[in-house]
Amino acid sequence: MKNIPAVLTLIILLFTVSLLDFHLALAQTKPTATKYDIRSAQKLYAQKEYEKVIAELSARVEKLSRDGLLLLARSYSSIKNPIEAIKTGSIILSTNPDDFEVKTFLGQEQIHLGKDREALITLRESLELNKKYEPTYLSIAEIYERRKNKYELRLLYLDMIESLGEKPAYITKVCQLATLEGLYDLSTQYCRKGIQVDPNDYRNPLYLGLTFKETGKIEEATKLLKKTADLFPKSEEAQITWAQHLDGQKNYVASLGYYQRAVQASPNSINGLLGLAQSSFELKKYDEALQFWKKACQLNGKATNSSLRKATNVVRLSRQAELLTKFEAAVDTCIKME
Q1: Alpha helix locations (H) across the chain?
Q2: I need a labelling partner for 98 at 20 to 30 A (CA). Which of 135, 161, 212, 296 fits?
Q3: Of the candidates 98, 101, 123, which has an alpha carbon nearest to the alpha carbon of residue 110?
Q4: Same topology for domains 149-232 and 235-338, yes or no?
Q5: Alpha carbon 141 to chain centroid distance?
């Protein structure tokens, strides 16, 4: 009688094992739901046939895998339909809320909808999930760039350096932002490092030169800004920065040439055209100056009108009636283009 409990336990154990075997066998006989094969849709996507991808996949949403849903969402994005893109991406998150790639994608689509505040929340959530995913940082940077928030942008790029490594693009961006913010110790550090890691990016020596200029190292600034302009003739910014430095020395003959380079590098450079106009005016080449102001006005009347008005006042004081008539007519035309 004392062995009855032991026998009973053995019977229960054997019954449990048999039951588990039964359920396992039953599960193996059930047909598994197969996901839709998206290879044809992937080929269409590679061929930029986004409407065809949508036509094929949208009718089979319930059969799509995570990759299929993301392909459909990206196709909606490619035809600039962020609402449907977000709806589709949200299906993925409903089953896996920790999918950082999809979260970043949704944040990007929210940016396209003009919902920057919501996008920042979504993108920051994605960063919490994965601090090594570069597209998340770049999407946040896009928002800060548009807001012209140099402070947050600088901190973001410093975070990127910490999390993703000292990539040349990140170092150059910190060099630039630190200079513009007046953080000259930081800009000196990162601009020098930027020159070492990427000598082909004009911004590193350019902003180091500006750092020298703002910290009173005029001789060093002069040498570096000129060297940068000459080494990078196709850089509009390098040409204009050096030309403006020459303007500060009232060397308009020399600055005129660098403004010409800037416009050659970028024909619609408003700063290049305004520089050409002002330098020509200072050299008393009034007709040439006026033509440059007129062209600049066609591109941006608001930006042009201020310097054109100042020049017109100078002409007025010179008592050159015919020239004044030309300048006043140009001002009137430019006002209408604001």
Answers
A1: 4-29, 39-46, 50-57, 66-78, 82-95, 100-112, 116-129, 134-147, 150-164, 168-180, 184-197, 203-214, 218-231, 236-248, 252-265, 270-282, 286-299, 301-318, 321-336
A2: 161
A3: 123
A4: yes
A5: 6
CATH number for the region 235-338 comes to 1.25.40.10
Cβ contact 122:110 at 8 Å: yes
- From the centroid of its chain, how far is CA 118? 18
State in Å, rounded, how far the first CA of the chain is from the last one: 106
| DSSP classification of residue 45 | H
Give the domain 149-232 fold.
1.25.40
pLDDT tens by residue, 184-233? 999 999 999 999 999 999 999 999 999 999 999 999 999 999 999 999 99
In Å, how far from its chain's centre is CA 261?
26
Round to whole Å and give the CA distance between 77 and 84. Answer: 8
Residues whose CB falls within 8 Å of the CB of residue 41, separated by 6 or more in sequence, listed in order: 53, 56, 57, 68, 71
Distance of alpha carbon 207 from alpha carbon 154, whole angstroms: 15
Is the separation of the CB atoms in 160 and 152 below 8 Å?
no
Question: Helix or strand or coil: residue 97?
Answer: coil
Do 63 and 36 contact (CB within 8 A), yes or no? yes
Could you tell me if 136 and 100 are in contact, meaning their C-beta atoms sit under 8 angstroms apart?
yes
| Sequence-separated (6 or more) residues with CB below 8 Å from residue 126 | 100, 103, 104, 107, 133, 136
d(CA 124, CA 140): 8
Domain ranges across the chain: 149-232, 235-338
Question: How high is the mean pLDDT of the chain?
Answer: 92
pTM for the whole thing?
0.85
Query: What token pair was written down for 21?
Result: 């075997």
- Rounded to the nearest 10 degrees, how much is the dihedral formed by the CA atoms of 160, 202, 283, 253? 150
Provide the sign of the torsion angle of the four alpha carbons 222, 225, 231, 234, taken in this order. negative
Q: Rounded distance, CA 195 to CA 201, Å?
A: 8
- Cα–Cα distance measured from residue 208 to residue 222, given in angstroms and rounded to the nearest whole number: 11
Q: SS3 of 27, please?
A: helix
